From TrEMBL:
Organism expressing this protein natively: Bifidobacterium aemilianum
Pfam families: Exo_endo_phos
Record keywords: Endonuclease, Hydrolase, Membrane, Nuclease, Transmembrane, Transmembrane helix
Ranges for domain Endonuclease/exonuclease/phosphatase: 159-369
Name used for this protein in its record: Endonuclease
SUPFAM superfamilies: DNase I-like
Coiled coil: none
Domain of life: Bacteria
């Protein structure tokens, strides 16, 4: 008996037959599967972008706050905890960079724009420290590299160091003075027992002239010189922070006189924020004394990001780190295990006509500061 087949593909007498799977059907089914998989991934991608966007916004806010605080005038920067926050200004480059990366990844364009603005301002503030404005003369570098320092030329190796309540290693200080051929030394937070240890270690063999002052009979500041200091004074600043001794040292066979001052301002610790600002204001008065040229060395408890410190510089003085393009002189803290120094609060400040270079930071046992050394050239 012959079987007939209908157009519908049904064999009469056998019931409906399954339709053969064609390549076209499989392709269509695969496309639908891809669309479904893409649809499944879209919520996860959106969720990830939202998370990245939130992180970018938070990091941008951190960078923005740091910029705004740095822009505050001196009076407002003396508000509680703000001096500590401003001291960290260079480090806020990091969250700004991270914020920009995350914002671009999450396609949060407004957040990215704000992050770029914060980053640009921060780079504008910090880049000059890595771009030399004035170079130390070659003659100066050659002069201080000699086996014995020439005390009558126009060059000298200088050093400043906070000895942390007299706890620093006196022998190490004298050894560094000898090795670096230091001709002028400024120390802060000295004590009588520390001075005794310093003298026992032989400081007078290299720097026989000194001026040490103490306001409270416990902690003081001092200057040591390889050549005689004229007009030594217990206090050159008249500051409420501490007695800051000064002395005049002659260069170029006595033709040029420079007034050195060992500086130590009030620390911006809790309850001392206003006193900190006032002690920097005391230093700022030196800008009006035009009868002499200064080199200020010491622990200023402030960085170039602090408005009161910039008032000290005004349009007269220069920070040696900024002038030379050495980079940030991160000097504190120096005694914490696993924590690098992150604040540039020790400085070598120069008057007009004085150039500095060859800056170096050295860790000395017993202190929470690093020593700052530099070479100066006097015109």
């Amino acid at each position: 008996m012959t079987k007939s087949v209908s157009r519908a593909g049904v064999v009469r007498g056998k019931g409906p037959q399954p339709r053969a799977r064609t390549g076209k059907w499989r392709k269509t089914n695969g496309a639908k599967s891809s669309v479904a998989a893409f649809a499944d991934k879209r919520p996860r991608r959106n969720q990830r972008n939202r998370l990245l966007g939130v992180l970018a916004a938070l990091l941008t806010l951190v960078g923005l706050v740091s910029v705004l605080v740095r822009l505050l005038p001196a009076d407002l920067q003396a508000l509680p905890w703000l001096p500590d926050l401003v001291a960290l200004t260079p480090w806020f480059l990091i969250p700004s960079v991270l914020a920009l990366i995350l914002a671009l990844r999450a396609k949060r364009w407004f957040v990215a724009l704000v992050a770029i603005l914060c980053l640009s301002v921060q780079v504008y503030w910090q880049y000059p420290f890595f771009s030399a404005g004035q170079c130390l003369p070659q003659e100066a570098m050659e002069a201080v590299s000699q086996a014995k320092a020439n005390h009558s030329d126009a060059y000298a190796r200088v050093m400043t160091f906070n000895v942390y309540k007299g706890r620093a290693d006196a022998k190490a200080i004298v050894a560094l003075v000898r090795e670096q051929r230091v001709e002028v030394l400024a120390l802060q937070e000295t004590t009588r027992p520390f001075i005794d240890r310093l003298e026992a270690a032989g400081i007078e063999d290299y720097l026989p002239y000194s001026q040490v002052s103490s306001a409270d009979g416990r902690y003081g500041n001092g200057l040591w010189s390889a050549t005689e200091m004229t007009k030594p004074a217990d206090d050159d600043v008249d500051s409420r922070a501490s007695l800051m001794p000064g002395g005049t040292i002659r260069f170029k066979e006595g033709q040029v006189s420079i007034r050195f001052v060992s500086v130590h301002t009030t620390s911006p610790s809790p309850g001392q924020w206003e006193a900190w600002r006032q002690s920097l204001d005391d230093l700022a008065r030196l800008t009006s004394r035009t009868d002499r040229r200064y080199i200020l060395m010491g622990d200023f408890n402030a960085s170039n990001d602090h408005a009161p410190f910039r008032s000290v510089l005004a349009d007269r003085f220069q920070d040696a780190a900024l002038q030379s393009g050495h980079g940030l002189t991160l000097s504190w803290p120096a005694d914490r295990v696993g924590v690098p120094a992150f604040a540039a609060i020790d400085h070598l400040i120069l008057d007009r006509g004085i150039t500095a270079g060859q800056l170096e930071m050295v860790r000395i046992a017993g202190s929470d500061h690093k020593a700052l050394l530099g070479t100066i050239a006097v015109d």
